[in-house]
Design goal:
Two copies of one chain form a homodimer.
Chain A: E1 3-7, E2 10-12, H1 20-24, E3 27-35, H2 42-56, H3 63-74, E4 79-87, E5 104-110, E6 119-128, H4 143-154, E7 159-164, E8 169-172, E9 176-181, E10 184-188, H5 198-206, E11 209-212, H6 216-220, E12 225-229, E13 233-240, E14 243-244, H7 249-261
Parallel strand pairs in A: 6-7, 6-13, 10-11
Antiparallel strand pairs in A: 1-2, 1-5, 3-4, 4-5, 7-8, 9-10, 9-12, 12-13, 13-14
Chain lengths: ~270, ~270
């Protein structure tokens, strides 16, 4: 699929083998749904990127150029996934960021995953570490997710739920978690680990949701569960370990509400 | 400086922009002292690489080829630093490792850092997260070290000591820590975070050292402290925050012992 690579404001042929993204995962990324030549949540993606860049002290590429290149890559696509990686750039040997560095950014297009009615989920043994300095942002240190995802593949499941070391549920490997509670929804707090997803953020603003600390038992006994992310929208959970859930009217309502606001996420 | 890039057994011109090292820090690295055309601790470096590869399920390049390329790169160098990065290779979008992947490996030569008599050290506010699944190995998820190192630079210090969330001291940003205790030495346990250094390992086998849990107060009141790594050998600590230490005969003895065994680390 199409890939464009840049150093600062200039398009380049390849990634420098001394790039800090490769050396240390010293970068950020966004994975975005493409719909009819555009990205429904582009503003939210770029805002999260900005938050991450501030946290890590990474300089972002020029905003207008970034938007123009994203628009150019998506222009002819009806349905696809666009991925943007921004690293701190090239930086010699050693952890200290160079005093002046131009970001490296890689923009790539991928096929959208097939739509599914619901997903089967397992509990992962891999935990997400407590690290408030990195929590919430979408940085490129993702070995925990890679290890957890290996468990999901081994279990022939669609996704896996991951807890922190204290046993509190954080999220799926690449999606946020919502569980039904009374008339509303609960979703785990992400101040110590996890990624604050764009679809999660939309739901926090458009549905009755409370952020909380959530243990495994509370998830397992909930009357409805779904996962969500900015590529696949809202994904009802059909099975979690031994328990199965019937299709939920409340989840369907949220899916409809999301589809009305963003037809690309229907 | 010289850089060689490989995919599996083949030398290639560049790093694939879809490499999982760049996307997720899904790789391992070794930073090695070059001395008179060879690497004093090559065997130990390759053993740690092997341990990391087993932990992460990464396939390593052919051992004979790897050794031959390392030897070729170092052949004419009297003093230098060789860095090896091995990633899981290219792997599309998504955390799941591809079922079959060839490792990407990048071998580069760098100037050795200038020798110093002793180092000035500060306490970092950045913490290392508890993550037993990643502790000890030298993987490429190093944002914590990057953040800690930014503090060291801001403080105009040579190095910084980093604690875990419980306040126990783990290591410096790119070196292990040893503190004097009675007739021997203490060094932090690294079963929950940190990198098990090659020089640290040598000291565990050749000096009177006990691995333990170490808090800040114990470090601050110790009669002698040093840092160590495989590039710079043993580095006496002269200052830590407000306290200064005179040159220590016990540290000098260890430096001599190391220099006798490995003249490259003198």
């Amino acid at each position: 699929m199409e890939t464009r690579i840049f150093r600062g404001e200039h398009r380049v042929d390849g990634v420098d083998p001394g790039d800090r993204g490769l050396a240390y995962g010293d970068g950020l990324f966004e994975t975005m749904r493409v719909h009819r030549g555009g990205i429904p949540w582009l503003g939210a993606h770029l805002q999260r990127l900005q938050r991450g860049a501030q946290r890590l002290g990474i300089i972002l590429p020029d905003d207008a150029l970034l938007r123009a290149e994203i628009a150019a890559v998506c222009a002819d696509r009806d349905v696809a996934v666009a991925k943007l990686i921004v690293t701190r750039g090239t930086g010699g040997r050693g952890y200290a960021p160079p005093p002046h560095s131009e970001p490296t950014w890689v923009l790539s297009l991928h096929e959208a995953p097939a739509a599914v009615q619901a997903v089967d989920v397992v509990w992962c043994d891999t935990t997400f570490a407590d690290q408030p300095a990195l929590a919430g942002i979408k940085h490129c240190n993702r070995l925990e997710q890679v290890l957890a995802r290996r468990e999901v593949v081994a279990a022939h499941a669609d996704e896996g739920l991951v807890c922190d070391v204290a046993g509190n549920v954080i999220s799926a490997t690449s999606a946020n978690l919502f569980v039904r509670d009374g008339d509303g929804w609960l979703t785990p707090k992400l101040d110590r680990s996890g990624v604050a997803g764009i679809c999660r953020d939309w739901l926090l603003h458009h549905a009755q949701v409370r952020e909380t600390v959530l243990n495994r038992a509370a998830v397992q006994r909930s009357s409805a569960i779904f996962l969500c992310n900015a590529v696949r929208g809202i994904l009802p959970v059909r099975r979690l370990d031994a328990r199965e859930w019937p299709a939920s009217a409340e989840v369907r309502d949220l899916q409809r509400q999301l589809a009305d606001a963003h037809p690309g996420l229907a």
